[in-house]
Design brief:
Layout (H helix, E strand, L loop, with lengths): L1 H14 L6 H21 L11 E5 L5 H9 L4 E6 L15 H14 L4 E7 H6 L4 H7 L4 E6 L3 H14 L15 H19 L2 H5 L1 E5 H20 L18 H4 L3 H8 L10
Parallel strand pairs: 1-3, 1-4, 2-3, 4-5
Helix pairs in contact: 1-2, 2-4
Length: 276
């Protein structure tokens, strides 16, 4: 703890604001956030003793960012993005223990504004810290879960590859092309399907969740909220809106440079999943 405080003071005084020291700036922002939410949790003035949160469970590039933004633009719902992501100010260091990760989740939810509170996790983040759904349920016995996935795994994979190669993760359109390696794509499909199998093999998820498909949200997000999310969370219906938009609007064969070489793999049944 003393070492963290020393590092914080050093970076805060000498480094903060210097764009060349992004890691140091991230350490400062993350330390400030963790200090604030921990203080608020243990403070008699700010602490909320009873709340039943919801959790958004996803894998990367499934529309979870848009979903969370929709949720945050309602009257009573507040939802945080990746609270276990070490690369963000609201996250925690990767060297944190499972106990600290669970405490961080608890403190974060306590600090969210809104009577209906939630946070988002990626499957890989839960696995990294060794957190099972049962661990979350012990802390929040009445928790609910929104599982979002993408029916088309090739669309998800292309989106992920474009984001990784260009650094464009939000809103910016793509003009670039990618090359797909069949073995890497097959591994992605198997890993993604395994992640959702882990979710749905959990009795708690099966009993206390709703399932959303990104494609259905794209078609009619208002309908999905009115018929699924609002009733599930106990929120009154309202007009939803988001500042985010789909980044890749091109057809798959226009984005994949070696499309003809991998078309058989892409059209294989491994490229589709249906959980809803």
């Amino acid at each position: 703890m003393f070492n963290n405080i020393s590092r914080f003071l050093f970076y805060k005084i000498l480094k903060k604001g210097d764009k060349k020291n992004e890691l140091e700036n991230l350490f400062v922002d993350r330390f400030e956030n963790r200090s604030k939410i921990t203080w608020n949790y243990y403070s008699k003035i700010f602490r909320e003793k009873e709340f039943s949160p919801f959790f958004v469970l996803a894998t990367p590039r499934t529309g979870s960012t848009i979903l969370v933004d929709y949720l945050n633009n309602t009257e009573n719902i507040g939802c945080m993005h990746e609270v276990l992501n070490a690369r963000t100010a609201i996250g925690i260091p990767r060297e944190s223990s499972k106990r600290k990760a669970l405490a961080h989740i608890k403190y974060t939810i306590n600090n969210i504004k809104g009577s209906i509170r939630g946070v988002k996790f990626f499957s890989e983040q839960l696995q990294f810290f060794g957190i099972e759904i049962e661990d979350i349920q012990k802390i929040f016995p009445d928790a609910k879960y929104i599982v979002i996935y993408r029916k088309s795994l090739i669309e998800q994979y292309v989106s992920l590859m474009l984001a990784q190669e260009t650094g464009k993760w939000i809103n910016e359109p793509y003009n670039e092309k990618i090359i797909i390696r069949p073995d890497d794509y097959k591994e992605f499909c198997l890993t993604t399907q395994k992640a959702y199998s882990r979710f749905f093999n959990c009795p708690i998820i099966r009993a206390r969740s709703i399932v959303m498909a990104y494609e259905d949200i794209l078609i009619d997000a208002q309908h999905e909220f009115d018929t699924k999310i609002f009733p599930f969370l106990g929120e009154k219906k309202c007009i939803i809106r988001t500042k985010f938009k789909k980044q890749n609007t091109k057809k798959i064969d226009e984005v994949i440079e070696n499309y003809e070489d991998v078309v058989d793999v892409i059209k294989n049944k491994i490229s589709r999943q249906l959980w809803a």
